[in-house]
Write a sequence for this structure.
């Protein structure tokens, strides 16, 4: 067995068969067998619970984007209203439409409109199944099956759309969020979701303010909602639900059915988005992106290794298993809270994707900037720490962060 021992700031690797005492080393053993490496004191690096160590989270889902023209226009309204307020909308897409509306599936020009919304930003699609089964029509009759509804809808969304960069890894696209038709799931649905690499499934149960619980049996998160922007709920009630989440530092997950909402006569949705949006201390995330983040922080726990911890420079390597990325993509930026020495007046941060690329300076942001889901760093001047948000690279499963003492 190889033994490690620390002597005077150096790491000595003792390899069996090698004597390090007064006896000379066996002449067959080359010098390379004896590895001496400087000890690196680990740097304190923690993964923040929320992106950029924000105070609270807003997730905004929208059910039933099907081919019905009135619904289609209503969804475009919802996307525009959310974007105006910096809120990310996660539309639940139904490629073959709502079966109870005689299958008005999405047509080519409608897919193009969805794509245009994604390209404008702050739209993160989710699957709401292929044709919304589960009440009058089951998952396995009239030309469909569990696999078509669950795996097929995911494939259709990926095939018809170019998803945001955070849904991509190594030239493949990943979409991990499922919105349950009628808010219902069962063992067959959940096992088919897991088989198709969904990471989170959402019911219509209300008043959830926290991250969803992990379902150990199937291996995915099972999420509820906080509230629905429905006609029965007043603007004051909606705003108070958000206030509750915000003041307690929790997750506010609000939903809407844009197709059923009266965009002409009811201004509640627009006003509520105005109330909850554009806040610099809130993290606005797509439903799938939020759970990619949470899964990494809660379950995967990326490996963080200190490579260098010197007076003027700190280097850490962060890596994640390839198998996890091949299942879920996991390219959404994660925030690392890194402690810096108290005598550093300032810090510059650089990142290197893999090991073959150069170190590139990262973008610096402050708490007075509005930003979400990008690679950036922000100094917390009062605590001698820096919040570094960085996504795993598109072509490798690790990266390096280099922190340099400012002025050095
Ligand atoms: Zn629905």
């Amino acid at each position: 067995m190889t033994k490690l021992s620390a002597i005077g700031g150096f790491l000595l690797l003792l390899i069996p068969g090698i004597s390090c005492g007064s006896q000379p080393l066996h002449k067959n053993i080359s010098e390379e067998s004896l590895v001496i490496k400087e000890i690196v004191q680990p740097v304190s690096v923690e993964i923040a619970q929320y992106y950029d160590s924000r105070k609270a989270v807003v997730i905004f889902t929208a059910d039933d984007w099907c081919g019905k023209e009135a619904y289609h226009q209503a969804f475009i309204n919802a996307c525009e209203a959310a974007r105006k307020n910096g809120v990310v909308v996660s539309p639940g897409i139904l490629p073959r439409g709502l079966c109870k509306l005689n299958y008005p599936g999405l047509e080519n020009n409608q897919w193009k409109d969805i794509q245009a919304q994604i390209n404008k930003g702050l739209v993160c699609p989710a699957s709401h199944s292929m044709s919304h089964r589960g009440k009058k029509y089951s998952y396995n009759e009239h030309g469909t099956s569990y696999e078509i509804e669950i795996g097929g809808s995911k494939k259709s969304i990926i095939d018809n759309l170019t998803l945001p960069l955070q849904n991509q890894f190594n030239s493949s696209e990943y979409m991990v969020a499922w919105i349950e038709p009628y808010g219902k799931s069962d063992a067959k649905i959940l096992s088919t979701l897991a088989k198709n690499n969904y990471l989170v499934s959402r019911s219509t149960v209300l008043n959830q303010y926290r991250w969803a619980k992990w379902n150990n049996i199937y291996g995915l998160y099972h999420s509820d909602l906080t509230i629905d922007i429905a006609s029965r709920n007043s603007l004051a009630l909606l705003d108070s639900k958000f206030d509750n989440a915000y003041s307690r530092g929790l997750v506010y997950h609000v939903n809407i059915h844009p197709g059923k909402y009266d965009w002409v006569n009811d201004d509640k949705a627009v006003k509520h988005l105005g109330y909850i949006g554009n806040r610099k201390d809130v993290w606005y995330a797509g439903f799938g992106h939020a759970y990619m983040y949470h899964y990494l922080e809660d379950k995967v726990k990326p490996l963080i290794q200190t490579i260098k911890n010197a007076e003027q420079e700190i280097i850490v390597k962060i890596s994640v298993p390839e198998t996890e990325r091949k299942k879920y993509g996991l390219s959404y930026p994660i925030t690392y809270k890194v402690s810096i020495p108290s005598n550093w007046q300032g810090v510059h941060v650089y990142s290197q994707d893999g090991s073959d690329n150069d170190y590139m300076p990262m973008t610096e942001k402050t708490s007075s900037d509005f930003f979400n889901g990008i690679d950036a760093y922000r100094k917390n001047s009062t605590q001698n720490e820096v919040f570094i948000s960085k996504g795993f690279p598109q072509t490798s499963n690790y990266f390096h962060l280099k922190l340099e003492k400012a002025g050095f």
